[in-house]
């Protein structure tokens, strides 16, 4: 190499290259976040076997591309829950987003709205549901069943009044999984990050740092109802005028039961490996669920989705769409709303390319692709 080449590099020294894919945001986020916040986001439960299995299972799915089908630029838009969205993708519900960036949920909901995809607002959002709904496009509300039924009805009324287009009941958190990184870090939510949808003071335990204790686990143990039943789902279906989604099923029998109870969709999910360690990867559980529900409701997948090829894989396995979790928090931490917009535009571009390379004109055709498991 000549001396001139050495002294005139193409990329200015010290400037990190722009993210080329969602995974690149992980390093950027890690560099700016306090280690215990990184661990809260990144970690899984127990030995993190399920967390690792999620990625491994997606990587093992081979998609057989079709050829000579004369596809020009594929369309990426898809219908989920009776509405058309720019992608068969929604931003997964994730608690306490002001941990990542001062603009938290407002930034991420805004970015999802700009990208034309739904944003799912967590019960444990650090901004009120009314403000999130005003900032976003299509916003779905995620409900954790609380011990205080009055609080549940209050949240449902507020979500409805705010215009939330669907209700997502999360059913895989009877108690919080043992997230050992949080235990080791004695992790507590900082005082400025509030559970803004709960009455003042109802999140005190989440902020109470105690050696050897996850304050998040202590708080959820205090406020979440541990013994929710199918009768509660029936009650919820009865009083919910918008589409109802049941998030966190892996057993096909539960998926069928949810559909029979009037769920419009199920999310095949192990909560990103944060609940039962030892649960299967969601991509491994997906095909049996798709087969069992046999079109009675839509089937979404989350846990481990890291790019457009994973969206294609999920569709090829029979899903109607996916939720994307941690990568959106990485992008939020790295660059606020602009970071999240960049991440979503990368995801959209990757998905469009994946469809083109697989010979599919639209997401519907991707559901007809065949797969191998290596
Ligand atoms: C930091 C964090 C907070 C989360 N909070 C919630 C929540 O409040 N409600 C919920 O239903 N799921 C929650 N989840 C689970 C996600 O909705 C989703 O199932 C999971 O993140 C998907 O896996 P992925 O992160 O590998 O994409 C959370 C996940 C993370 C990483």
UniProtKB/TrEMBL annotation:
This is Alpha-hydroxy-acid oxidizing protein. The lineage of its organism: Bacteria, Bacillati, Actinomycetota, Actinomycetes, Micromonosporales. SUPFAM superfamilies: FMN-linked oxidoreductases (SSF51395). Its cofactor is FMN. The keyword Transferase does not apply. Residues 14-374 form the FMN hydroxy acid dehydrogenase domain. Belongs to the FMN-dependent alpha-hydroxy acid dehydrogenase family. PROSITE patterns: FMN_HYDROXY_ACID_DH_1, FMN_HYDROXY_ACID_DH_2. Pfam families: FMN_dh (PF01070). Keywords: Flavoprotein, FMN, Oxidoreductase. It comes from the Bacteria.
């Amino acid at each position: 190499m000549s001396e001139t080449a050495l002294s005139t590099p193409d990329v200015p020294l010290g400037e990190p290259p722009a993210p080329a894919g969602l995974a690149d945001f992980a390093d950027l986020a890690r560099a700016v976040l306090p280690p215990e916040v990184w661990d809260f986001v990144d970690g899984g439960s127990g030995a993190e076997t399920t967390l690792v299995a999620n990625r491994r299972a997606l990587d093992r799915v081979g998609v057989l591309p079709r050829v000579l089908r004369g596809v020009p630029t594929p369309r990426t838009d898809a219908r989920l829950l009776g509405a058309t969205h720019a992608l068969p993708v929604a931003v997964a519900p994730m608690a306490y987003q002001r941990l990542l960036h001062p603009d938290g949920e407002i930034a991420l909901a805004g970015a999802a709205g700009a990208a034309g995809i739904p944003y799912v607002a967590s019960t444990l959002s650090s901004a009120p549901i009314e403000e999130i709904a005003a900032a976003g496009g299509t916003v779905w509300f995620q409900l954790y069943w609380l011990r205080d039924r009055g609080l549940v009805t209050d949240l449902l009324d507020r979500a409805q009044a705010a215009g939330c287009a669907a209700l997502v009941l999360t059913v895989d958190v009877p108690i919080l999984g043992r997230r050992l990184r949080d235990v080791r870090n004695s992790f507590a939510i900082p005082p400025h990050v509030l559970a803004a949808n709960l009455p003042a003071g109802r999140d005190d335990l989440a902020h109470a740092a105690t050696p050897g204790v996850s304050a998040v686990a202590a708080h959820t143990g205090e406020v979440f109802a541990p013994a929710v039943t199918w009768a509660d789902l029936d009650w919820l279906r009865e009083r919910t005028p918008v589409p109802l989604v049941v998030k966190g099923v892996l057993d096909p029998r539960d998926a069928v039961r949810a559909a029979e109870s009037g769920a419009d969709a199920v999310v095949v999910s192990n909560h990103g490996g944060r609940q039962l360690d030892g649960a299967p990867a969601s991509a491994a559980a997906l095909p049996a669920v798709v087969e069992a529900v046999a079109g009675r409701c839509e089937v979404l997948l989350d846990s481990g989705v890291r790019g457009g090829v994973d969206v294609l894989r999920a569709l090829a396995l029979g899903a109607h769409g996916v939720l994307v979790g941690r990568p959106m928090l990485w992008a939020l931490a790295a660059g606020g709303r602009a970071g999240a917009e960049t991440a979503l535009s990368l995801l959209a571009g990757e998905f469009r390319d994946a469809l083109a390379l697989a010979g599919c004109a639209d997401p519907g055709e991707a559901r007809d692709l065949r797969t191998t498991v290596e």
